[in-house]
């Protein structure tokens, strides 16, 4: 019996040693949520010694824990006698521990997966609840960075690099969707097409880098002038386009005139001399006679051509 008792004590000792040193948190509470076990992981990451936690109500030790949620989760585990889980994607953390890993230093707090385990006695009755805490900060941060990179990549695929306006492909997709919406609703919507006057002369006299700066300036004016709901794009070369949802042609003419005035007032400074340019614009309101969106573009382009024929630096309504 003595040898058996010694063996049991030895097994109990190394079991406690393992529980104290494993790299996961272990917390045990009774059915009144008083802390009865607390391993080294919990002590190290919380900064709370066992003697300051044992016997105390869990929500006094950790006031940041959402009590209603934790109690509901625990009661379900206790009543069904089944394990339950929570992941960092459902709830970033249960225990608000600081993240102290240098590799994942971008995260202020430790991301956690937690397992709730019912602890039964020899009669099969649940007497306690064990919560296992896994530090998954590395996984969470890596996934978030990947998602962020994918969002940025998707956004870049939509943008024209020089102007940071929508590129032609994505802009035409938006126009196609707006065209289909107009076919159903028939609301007033307008399209503005415009280009930079005598742009070839700018490139020939000042060089392509100066021409690029002029294009960037025009794009900046567009972003500063239009509304958040408007959809701007670089149509090609020095030509631009803006979709104006829910806008009467007369209102679109006013916005186009502001664009014209603001561009004319800009000065692009180069190593040689300052450059000032103008733009010519064409405006076309939605027409139920359009059978496809390319006809809408053609209508605005024809108005743009009339502005060119009329002496440039003009706005013309189709």
From TrEMBL:
**Do you know which Pfam families this protein is assigned to?**
GGDEF (PF00990), PAS_4 (PF08448)
Reaction(s) catalysed by this chain, per the record, are:
2 GTP = 3',3'-c-di-GMP + 2 diphosphate
* PROSITE patterns from the UniProt entry: GGDEF (PS50887), PAS (PS50112)
What is the residue range of the signal peptide feature?
none
Q: Show where the GGDEF domain sits.
A: 187-318
What is the species of this protein? Saccharospirillum salsuginis
From the Swiss-Prot or TrEMBL record, what is one GO molecular function term? diguanylate cyclase activity
InterPro entries assigned: Diguanylate_Cyclase, GGDEF_dom, Nucleotide_cyclase, PAS, PAS-like_dom_sf, PAS_4, Rev_trsase/Diguanyl_cyclase
Task: Report domain PAS positions.
Answer: 11-62
- The protein's name is diguanylate cyclase
For activity, the cofactor(s) needed are:
Mg(2+)
SUPFAM superfamilies cross-referenced by the UniProt entry: Nucleotide cyclase, PYP-like sensor domain (PAS domain)
What sort of enzyme, by top EC class, is this?
transferase
